[in-house]
Amino acid sequence: VVKPAADEQQRLVAALRAGERRALARALSWVESGHPGAPELLTDVCQASPVPWVIGVTGVGGAGKSTLVPRLAQGLLAEGLRVGILAVDPSSPFSGGAILGDRIRDTGDASSRVFFRSVATRGGSGALAGCVHDLVRVMGAGGFDVVLVETVGAGQSEVAVMELAHTVVLVCAPGLGDEIQAIKAGVMEVADLIVVNKADLPGAEATAHTLRQALGLPMDAHHLAEGRNDDGQGPCRWHTPVVMASSISGQGLDQVRAQVLAHRQTQRDNGDYAARDRQRDRWRMQQLFTQLVVERATECAARMSVWSAIEAELADRTLDPWTAAARATDSVISACFKNRQETT
Ligand SMILES: Nc1nc2c(ncn2[C@@H]2O[C@H](COP(=O)(O)OP(=O)(O)OP(=O)(O)O)[C@@H](O)[C@H]2O)c(=O)[nH]1
Ligand SMILES: [Mg+2]
Fold it and tell me: Rounded mean pLDDT of 298-320?
């Protein structure tokens, strides 16, 4: 794919900002597929667009994330917010069409206003999180106030995605043993709200109890209540609440919505919201820096004779891989630097 002309990319950004759905879908595809026009598109997008409120929803398979997310989306829509959903599914990257079908049924009347997109994963955990970050920014330019990001499981890549969210919702369910898994995986540390879904099934109370106990220890030590804590002295604080809900019957969903909104307000009031924004940009910058350094150095190395000389020495074992790598790095860095000086 060749790099698009600047005006094509500018038209796309303008259409995206005007709220055109097709432009949104196209811009998201550019970012997702690593289209050559994506970096400039993102530069434009980031310059003058608000960053949406990112709610990460995670939990083990079958906990009910996909059932909960559209209902939470509807609830936030009723608050007057423009809501989009990004579903990250590492296990089935091609299930987008099927999920979309389900989702339209799920959201009922509101479906035309809740934008849904499934994200095919590529690369490692860092690549996924970086991609999701960029997709969120595109949605910000498209006028979305909130983006719900749904990920499966509790592995490294999910934790990386969750670290980019302002509000992290962990979905558990009775009888899955996932409260234990969640504790082990460290997802609980990043959760801002835990939903014990399927509260209509037996065992939900026990699951909630286990989770509350695990969370309760630090809570007791700091004399905190669940949710927002505001004693009027010093900044308000948040303690992860456990909410029982049923995404099917609708029981407890008002409370889920109220708690995510309360979390956002608390974060805004105590400065954590802005801090998470800064942290996310810093993280992305570092990631892009590493990527660009590798790209440029590799390009440079390919044109250098010293590279083949090092490879030859490596082949006849006069050099070991460590010394060879150190020497190659030194050569490439000084050559890149010299090139730059000559061209500027
Ligand atoms: N009884 C009951 N079943 C539910 C509830 N919420 C979801 N389910 C069912 O649980 C099953 C899994 O729900 P999903 O929403 O697909 O779960 P998920 O967490 O998205 O699962 P993965 O995408 O596989 O990670 C489905 O059969 C749902 O109908 C609930 O509140 N009560
Ligand atoms: Mg799902």
Answer: 88
